[in-house]
Amino acid sequence: MPQVHFRFYAELNDFLKVGQHHKRFTIDLDRRTSIKDLIESLGVPHTEVEVILVNGHSVDFSYIVKDNDDISVYPVFETVDITPLLKLRSQPLRTMHFVLDCHLGRLARYLRQLGFDTLYRNDYDDETLAQISAKEHRILLTRDRSLLKRSIITHGYFVRESDPRKQLDEVLNRFDLKNSITPFGRCTRCNGIVVPVDKETIDDQLEPKTRKYFDTFWQCSECKQIYWEGSHVDKMHELNLEVMQ
After folding, report:
1. I need a surface site. Which of 157, 163, 169, 172 has the fewest CB within 10 A?
2. Sign of CA dihedral 104, 106, 109, 110
3. pTM of the complete model
4. Phi, psi of 179 (to 5 degrees)
5. How does pLDDT run across 141-168, given as a tens digit for each residue?
6. pLDDT(205) > 90
7. Which of 52-56, 89-93, 99-103 has the lowest mean pLDDT?
8. CA–CA gap between residue 199 and residue 124 (Å, rounded)
């Protein structure tokens, strides 16, 4: 029976069987298949893959696997220039826009606190998430591996951590985002852009104590939520300091 040889690198090993981790292994090729389908049959979502080398040459997902192919599979690179090797998409993803599944609500709030464009609703179903990711070129963050295997999704990431605060560190490190943090850039409620606003223009919307003790305000350009230098802003500062350490 024809066989092919695989080697997966870095975090792609998270999706493999234990005996396949961090080493070259061989599988039987029992059908005519594309390299995309074969990789996903091993448990690795195609959205996690950036470069595939077959016998030392870069190929795209449509490549039909042949007997005795030697295949190396590399994860998404966001911090190095791999354009000469890139075949799977026109260029590495640089601008970070996210859409999150229903299990990542707290992570969505954290990302918005740090200024990242993050769509989230707890009633988004899988089809809606896939459509948003594809049409708006957003990175889909999810805890559902099967969702990332939908062919319409080109950029996605399986979040390994279960604790929301650790999830934030994981995403920031995975996509090298720490230099892109802009606190107060996004509304934590709706993801709208937050801008400074004069106290006089919102004076009639303020509670008496807020009006008396605070003078600096921001407002969401979408839902009109008002922010001021209170405890919630202090928490944003604390989060920013934590992730930058």
Report:
1. 163
2. negative
3. 0.73
4. -80, -5
5. 999 999 999 989 988 999 999 999 999 9
6. yes
7. 89-93
8. 36
151 lies in the same domain as 205: no
Give the length of the chain. Answer: 245
- Shared-domain flag, residues 137 and 172: yes
Domain of 31, CATH number, reads: 3.10.20.30
Compute how many other C-beta atoms are within 10 angstroms of the C-beta atom of residue 120. Answer: 22
| Long-range residue pairs from 79-88, CB within 8 A, at least 24 positions apart, any chain | 79/176, 82/50, 82/51, 85/51, 85/53, 85/58, 86/50, 86/51, 86/58, 87/51, 87/52, 87/58, 87/59, 87/60, 88/49, 88/50, 88/51, 88/52, 88/60, 88/61
Is there a single domain that holds both residue 76 and residue 151?
Answer: no
Q: Are 108 and 118 in contact (CB under 8 A)?
A: yes
